[in-house]
């Protein structure tokens, strides 16, 4: 959805501004252009060691890095049967906390261990002076592990974390007893501690990953100035995190548009290509084609409205 769009479009725009940019995502599929770097990292989770591999491709100035682990691949069968978060809507996979913790810890390793020379201006590992942009609850543990595993050893001492909220409705709420599974010191408990009025996944006290991500990061940002206002406007709009966001502050930066992907002069999905000089000729023809395709009366004088927004229950 929107998160995929941002991760597709924002990094190339940042690279075009002269930054060295890496994205880190789970390897949910056998992506045909991402090659095995043969770099393996051992990550300790709950007293056992998990090995992840990094796959990599370089596109439009961005190092695209994918974290390979059997638990990411096994949930997804080809590009169409993908069930990334749970077996069905509103239900979590039992190992979600484990999988997304693995992503957070792997993302902290990637800039240090990957020796990437994709670009003539930048070479070698990214090093320690990095800004992590953590997106939504799945990456909310990243600032916590940055503070507990790396900073005490003098690694990433200047690194910062910006936490970006794309959808406040999904927060990563789990039973409070699960805090012990995260291997974090007790002084982090307050950042996770959460009480709500729901019985999902259990009644009473919970941990809330997004709450911790908001409190433990250096800056909190979101996808538009309007959404930033909405999130602090009340308990329903902030989905019970409005007070926490009030405390940290939040910056709304409007989601941009990838002008390469959405260029009507080159868009392969348009029957009639156009630019700013031919737009008035092309649009009525495209409107008629759309009306015909979806079974509406074909009439170029009837207005057609497009709505881009959230479709959910």
Automatic annotation (TrEMBL):
Keywords of the record: Glycosyltransferase, Starch biosynthesis, Transferase
GO molecular function, one term: glycosyltransferase activity
UniProt xrefs under InterPro entries: Starch_synth_cat_dom
Pathway: Glycan biosynthesis; starch biosynthesis
Pfam families: Glyco_transf_5
Gene Ontology BP term (one): starch biosynthetic process
Domain Starch synthase catalytic: residue ranges: 1-246
Name of this protein: Granule-bound starch synthase
């Amino acid at each position: 959805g929107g998160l995929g769009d941002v991760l597709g479009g924002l990094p190339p725009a940042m690279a075009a501004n002269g930054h060295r940019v890496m994205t880190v995502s789970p390897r949910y599929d056998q992506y045909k252009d991402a090659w095995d770097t043969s770099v393996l990292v051992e990550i300790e989770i709950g007293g056992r060691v998990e090995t992840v591999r990094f796959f990599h491709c370089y596109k439009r100035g961005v190092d695209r890095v994918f974290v390979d682990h059997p638990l990411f691949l096994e949930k997804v069968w080809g590009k169409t049967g993908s069930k990334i978060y749970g077996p069905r809507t509103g239900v979590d996979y039992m190992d979600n906390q484990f999988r997304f913790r693995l992503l957070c810890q792997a993302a902290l390793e990637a800039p240090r261990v990957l020796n990437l020379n994709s670009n003539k201006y930048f070479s070698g590992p990214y090093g320690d002076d990095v800004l992590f942009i953590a997106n939504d609850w799945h990456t909310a543990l990243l600032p916590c592990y940055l503070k507990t595993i790396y900073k005490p050893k003098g690694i990433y001492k200047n690194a910062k974390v910006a936490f970006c909220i794309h959808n406040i409705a999904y927060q990563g709420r789990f039973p409070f007893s699960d805090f012990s599974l995260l291997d974090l010191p007790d002084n982090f408990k307050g950042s996770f501690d959460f009480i709500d009025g729901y019985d999902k996944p259990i009644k009473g006290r919970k941990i809330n990953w997004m709450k911790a991500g908001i409190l433990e990061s250096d800056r909190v940002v979101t996808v538009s100035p309007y959404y930033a206002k909405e999130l602090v406007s009340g308990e329903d709009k902030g989905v019970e995190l409005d007070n926490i966001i009030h405390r940290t502050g939040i910056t709304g930066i409007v989601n941009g548009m990838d002008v390469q992907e959405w260029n009507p002069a080159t868009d392969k999905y348009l029957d009639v290509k156009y630019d700013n000089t031919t737009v008035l000729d092309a649009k009525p023809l495209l409107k008629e084609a759309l009306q015909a395709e979806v079974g509406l009366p074909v009439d170029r004088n009837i207005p057609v409205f497009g709505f881009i927004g959230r479709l959910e229950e």
